[in-house]
Amino acid sequence: MADIDSGTEIDNKLNTYFPGKVVRKDLTKLMKVGHNVPVYVLEYLLGSNCATDDEDLIKEGVKKVKNILSENYVRPDEAELIKSKIRETGYYTIIDKVTVRLNERRDVYEALFSNLGISKVEVDPFYVKKYEKLLGGGIWCIIKMEYLTESSQSPFMISDLKPIQIPNVNINEFIELRKNFTKDEWIDALLRTIGMEPTQLEYPAKWHLLERLVPLVENNYNMCELGPRNTGKSHVYKEISPNSILISGGQTTVANLFYNMSTRQVGLVGMWDVVAFDEVAGIKFKDKDGIQILKDYMASGSFARGKDQINANASIVFVGNINQSISSLLKTFHLFAPFPDAMNNDSAFFDRMHYYLPGWEVPKFKPEHFTDRYGFIVDYFAEFLREMRKRSFSDNIFNHFKLGNNLNQRDVIAVKKTFSGLMKLIFPDENISKEEAQEILEYSMVGRRRVKEQLKKIGGIEFFDVNFSYIDNDDMTEHFVTVPESGGNKIIPEGLVNPGHVYAVAGAPSSKIGVYKIELQVVSGSGKYDKSGLGSNPKANIAVCS
User: Fold this and answer.
1) Which helix (H) or strand (E) holds 28?
2) Distance (Å, whole) CA 40 – CA 53
3) Measured at the alpha carbon of residue 440, what is the angle toward residues 434 and 442, in degrees to the nearest 5?
4) Residue 480 in contact with residue 445, Cβ under 8 Å?
5) 117: phi > 0 → left, psi -120 to 50 → alpha, else beta; which?
6) What is the three-state SS of 272-320?
7) d(CA 105, CA 531)
8) Cα gap 55→27, rounded to integer Å
9) Is 115 helix (H, G, I), strand (E, B) or coil?
C-alpha cells in the first residue's frame, strides 16, 4: 500500500512540476506492440498528444497517435503501398529512419530510407548541415515526400525533413524543479522514465540501472557491462536516447568509427554521445590497427589519422553475455573473458575501463519489472542528459573526502567520472549531503576496483594495488571498499584460499603490525626465480629468498 501511495505522489509531483513533459509509460508499451520504432519516437508522438493526466484527453491522444502510426509510419511490408500513395497523390508525409551519404561523383547528398526501401533520394545540404547525424548511422524523421517524374536519379523528393526530437529544454528550470523531490523519489522518477518499476527492484539494482545512464551524461566515459541474458543491457542505448548508437554484432571499421580518410569525415565518435558495442564476443575490426586506435581514444578522447589529431567526446560502452556462473568464471579465468581473443588478455585495453557494471546483479526482466506509471518523455530527458555533458561535478568529492594512496591516476579519473555522472543524474542542483556523497563515492570505487581485480589476474603484480580506500576529511578515518565477488569485506577471506596465496602477519619498520599477502604466479619468463613488491627492504628480501 505504501508503494502505491508513494507512486501516486510521484505521479502527482511530475504532472504538477513538469506539465506536458511526462507521459504514462503503459501507453508506450501499448504503442510499442506492432510498431518497431524506438521508444523515443513513440514518446515524441505521445508527448505531443497525451502529456496530461486527464483520462479523456489521453484516450483522444492515443487514438490520434494510432492514426499517425497507421497512416504515416512505414512498415517494411507496406513499403510498396506507401510508395504508391506518394506517386498517386504527389505528396505524402511518412515516419522513417533516414541515412544520408555524399555522392562525390554527382556532388550531391543522397538519402536511404530504411523501411521504405528507396535510395539515391537527393537531400538539400541545408538539412545535412543542420542535422549531421543523418550522415552517421541515420535518424528517425518526419518527412514530407513529393513525386516528380522529371528527376534524373529518383522521382522521390524531400520537400521537408524534421528529426523526431524535442527542440529545446530549459536546463536551469529542470534543475530548479528537481528540488521538489526527495532523493528516493527522484531516483524512482528516473527509473520510470526508462520504463522500469522501482518498487520491483532491489536497492543495488536501482543503482546499476542508473549507472547505465552515466555514459549518456558524461563525456568520454568507458563502461563495460557483462551478465546474463534478458537483463536489458543494450536497451538504454538503442531505445531511450536519440543521441546514442548501438553497433550490433560488434563489427566495424576505423573509417566508420573514427575517421574516413577518403571523405575526410569524422566517424561515429564525433557524431554520437555514446557508441555502444553489443555482444562483445563479436567485436572485430576489419583494420589491423583498429583496436590500438580504440585503445588510444579510450585513454585520451583523441586519435590520430594522417597528419591530424582529432578530438571527440563520445563515451564507449561494451555490453555482452556471460554464459557461466560468476564463481566458476573467477576460479578459471577473469570477468573480461567474454571479450574476443584479440582483447581478453590485453591489460592495457581493460585499464581504460572506468566502470565494470555487474550485470549478474540486475534481475532478469519480467512483466512486473516494467512500469505503468508516469515518467519523463524520454526525448525530453535525453536533452537534459546531453546538456549536462557540458558540466562536471567531480570536484564535489573533495568537499568531504580524499582518495587513498592505492589509487593511481587512471583510477582517480575513473572514480571522478563515475561520481560526476551519478551526481548529475541524482543531484543536478549540486545540493548533496556528506552521506549522499559517500554513497555515490563508494559505488564509484567498487566498479573501478572490479576492473583492477581482473587486471591483477591478467597482468599479475603490476596491478597489485587494488585495496581502494577514501579518507574522511573531518576525522581522517580511512574507509576501504571491497568487491562482493572477491571475498567480502574481511582482510583475510574465510575458507580455503587460492593455491599460491599465503597470508602472514609481521612487524613493519615503523614498529606497527601489518598483514601481508604473498601470491605466487607462473608467468612466461627466463625460468629464473624472481620477486617484486618488496621495495628496498633488505630484511624482507632476505626472508623471501632464503
Assistant:
1) helix 25-32
2) 20
3) 100
4) no
5) left
6) CCEEEECCHHHCEECCCCHHHHHHHHHHHCEEEECCEEEECCCEEEEEE
7) 64
8) 12
9) coil
What distances in angstroms separate CA 69 from CA 65, 113, 194, 210, 349, one per listed residue? 6, 17, 22, 31, 44
The contacts of residue 35 (CB under 8 Å, 6+ apart) are: 42, 69, 73
CA distances from 456 to 344, 379, 448, 464, 517 (A): 13, 41, 13, 6, 14
Please check whether residue 440 is in contact with residue 470, taking contact to mean a CB–CB distance below 8 angstroms. Answer: no
The four Cα atoms 323, 269, 103, 289 give a dihedral, to 10 degrees, of: -70
Residue whose grid cell is 563489427? 251
Q: Which residues contact 172 (CB under 8 A, 6 or more apart)?
A: none
**Alpha-carbon separation of residue 299 from 31, 354, 357 (angstroms):** 41, 10, 19
Does residue 114 contact residue 94 with C-beta atoms inside 8 Å?
no
CA dist., res. 167 & res. 176, Å (int):
20
- Burial (0-12, 13-18, 19+ Cβ within 10 Å), 513: exposed
Q: In this structure, what DSSP letter does residue 366 have?
A: -
As a whole number of angstroms, the distance between CA 406 and CA 467 comes to: 6
pLDDT (tens digit, 9 = 90+) per residue, 405-422?
989 999 999 999 999 999
Q: Tell me how far apart the alpha carbons of residues 29 and 195 are, in angstroms, rounded to a whole number.
A: 9
Between CA 352 and CA 70 the distance in angstroms is 46
DSSP 65-101: HHHHHHHHB--GGGHHHHHHHHHHHSEEEEEEEEEEE
Annotate 121-182 with DSSP letters as a single string.
Answer: EEE-HHHHHH-GGGGTT-EEEEEEEEE-TT-SS-SEEEEEEEESS-S---HHHHHHHGGGS-
b/e sequence 201-230, b meaning 16+ C-beta within 10 Å: beeebbbbbbbbbbbbbbbbbbbbbbbbee
Q: How far apart are CA 41 and CA 57, in angstroms?
A: 20
* pTM attached to this predicted model: 0.80
Q: What is the CA radius of gyration of the chain?
A: 26
Q: Which residues contact 55 (CB under 8 A, 6 or more apart)?
A: none
pLDDT average per 10 residues of sequence, the chain (546 residues):
68 92 88 78 84 83 88 88 92 92 90 92 91 82 89 85 79 94 96 95 96 97 94 90 85 83 80 90 80 90 81 94 81 85 86 95 93 92 92 94 92 97 96 96 96 85 81 93 69 65 74 70 67 66 66
- 414's enclosing H/E stretch is helix 409-426
Cβ contact 110:122 at 8 Å: yes
What pLDDT digit, counting tens, does each position of 126-164 carry?
A: 999 888 878 877 888 999 999 988 766 789 999 999 888
Contacts of 294 (CB under 8 A, 6+ apart): 257, 285, 316
Q: Whole-angstrom Cα distance, residue 435 to residue 129? A: 47
Q: H/E/C letters for each residue in 177-195? A: HHHHCCHHHHHHHHHHHCC
| Residue listed under C-alpha cell 558495442 | 277
